[in-house]
Every structure is written in structure tokens, then in C-alpha cells.
Amino acid sequence: MTSRLLEPDPDHAGEGKSINSQFNFIPPFLRSRSFAKVSLRNTSMLTVTNLSKSFDNLSILDNFNLSVPKNGFTVLIGPSGCGKSTLFDLLTGVWPIDRGEISWLGESLPHLGENAAYMQQKDLLLPWFSLIDNALLPARIANADIDQSREKALALFKRLGIHGFENYRPMEISGGMRQRCALIRTLMFERELVLLDEPLSALDAITRRSLQSLLLMLQSDFNRSILMITHDIEEALLMADELLVLTPAPMRVRERFTLDSKKPRSVSDPQLIEIKEHVLNQLQGDLNIEPL
């Protein structure tokens, strides 16, 4: 394995009811118009340049830079409140950017729009829908062929290990199974980029490790590019192709680690242990906590 710690950037950058009658209950990030895939031509899919955002004169992001390559797995880790979720809100158009640029395949956009799917920490499954109906939400919203979409969803239920639970409702299954269904729904959007905001943080260790493997499959078998937020350093090191360590707000990139070793990785790898200790010391320093 060759893990490469780069120098800090000079600028620190770096539910029933019909679907129509219940549309207002669908989370905003599920509302979309198109299923279309984007043709991949450039190596860099998402580029963020000098992105800045403030609320009431409080600077959250300051000249933030980011690049996510095709089929790349980029992980962001930083102290709580540093601006990671705000970055995703800017990328998905929840908030407008103040300054800077968001580019998709070289084209400047106000936000990613239909180019990205977004999976959050909470599964956000609609409780009045069965799991299969939750998984089919993207197809219904896009007026896609439901029979074909159902076949695809059923295949994903089998692939992700929850075959036989399609007609259960979310409150009848475990948290890990709900997250698997949420992942299936994410895949049903057929977007080239997937944004993951701590999707595994509420799970127990065994279930979490299983879902980590599924996310790696999302990258390798489904050719998705992934941008993920986590607070778990080990999780980041096991999954990332590039790890960005962030500063407290206003958020910038403090350090970048390139991890090019083959996956799956082992937490006992000496180089990963060294990087983990280094990053942990950095984050503890932000909280004014003395290292052990």
C-alpha cells in the first residue's frame, strides 16, 4: 500500500395513499424530473472552486475547493459544526452559494440538481409505504415504467440481502435493513454521483461494517462516484480513495490523504494506524483535547 500525505493546500482549500396525494410529504431531495444518466467524458466529475457561504455574517465555508473524479470515493472528515452538511446543502441547492463555482463535467452550475443522489443519516423512508414502494419512489416521480423498475428494485433487494422483506413497512424491520432500503432507493435514481451524509452513524458496529461493504460495492459494481461525510476515522480510511481533513468553520481543507491500496483494507495496517493517529490528534486539537 502506498498512502500519500500531501502538503496542506496553500489556500487551505482544497406511506395507502396515492403517490400524488402524498407528494408534499416526500422529502425535497427525492423530488426530481429525470432519470437520465449523464455521459461521462471528463475524469473530474464534480469540481468545487473557492466556494464560500455565510449566515448572518458567520462564515461557514471560505474558499473551499474539492474535486471528485469519475468512480472516485472521496471522504470528508472534520469537527462537528465545521460546515460539512452545509456543503451538501449548497451542492443540492438547498442554499444558494455566496461566492465560488460548482462545476459538473466542466460545466458551471448553480447546484448539482439531477446529477446527484443524496442519502442522509436518517433513512427518511415513508412509514405508510412498504419497502418496495419506498424503493420505487424515484420511478414514480419520474413517470418511469413501473414494471421494469420493479424488476430492477427486486434484483437490488436480493443483491443487498433483504429479499423477502419487500412488503414490510419500515417500522417492522431493523435500522440496518432500513438503510439498505434507502441505499436501494438511492441506486434507483441512477445518478452518477452519490452524496452520503453519515449514512451509517446510527448503526451498530457489525451492521455498520456490512453496510460499508455495500457502499464499496456501490462504487465498484455500479460505477458510482461517492462523496461521503463521516466522523469515523477508521471508516474513512477503509473506504476512501481520497480523505480530506477539514478545519473548523470557516471550513477549508487542512490536509489531503491519497489512499491507493486495494480494498477491502485492514484496520491493522500500520500505515492506516499512523494516519488515524495523525488525524485524531488534529481533530482533538480543534477541541482543545490533549492526546492520550
Give me the secondary-structure topology.
Layout: E1 3-5, E2 44-55, E3 58-69, E4 73-77, H1 84-91, E5 99-104, E6 107-109, E7 116-119, H2 131-135, H3 137-141, H4 146-159, H5 175-188, E8 193-197, H6 205-220, E9 225-229, H7 233-239, E10 242-246, E11 253-259, H8 270-286
Parallel strand pairs: 4-9, 4-10, 7-8, 8-9
Antiparallel strand pairs: 1-11, 2-3, 2-5, 5-6, 10-11
What labels describe this entry?
single chain; 292 residues; alpha/beta; Rossmann fold; seven-stranded mixed β-sheet; four-stranded antiparallel β-sheet; disordered N terminus
Architecture overview:
Helices cover 29% and strands 23% of the residues. The protein contains eight helices and eleven strands. A hairpin with a 2-residue loop joins strand 2 and strand 3. The radius of gyration is 19 Å and the shape is globular.
CATH homologous superfamily assignment: P-loop containing nucleotide triphosphate hydrolases
**CATH architecture term:** 3-Layer(aba) Sandwich
**Do you know the CATH topology?**
Rossmann fold
Number of E strands? 11
Helix content: 25-40%
What's the SSE pattern?
EEEEHEEEHHHHEHEHEEH
CATH class: Alpha Beta
Gyration radius, to the nearest Å?
19 Å
Query: Strand arrangement, largest sheet?
Result: 1-11-10-4-9-8-7
Shape: globular
- Helical run tally: 8
Model regions low in confidence, pLDDT < 50 over at least 5 residues: 1-42
Mean pLDDT: 82
The share of residues in extended strands comes to: 15-25%
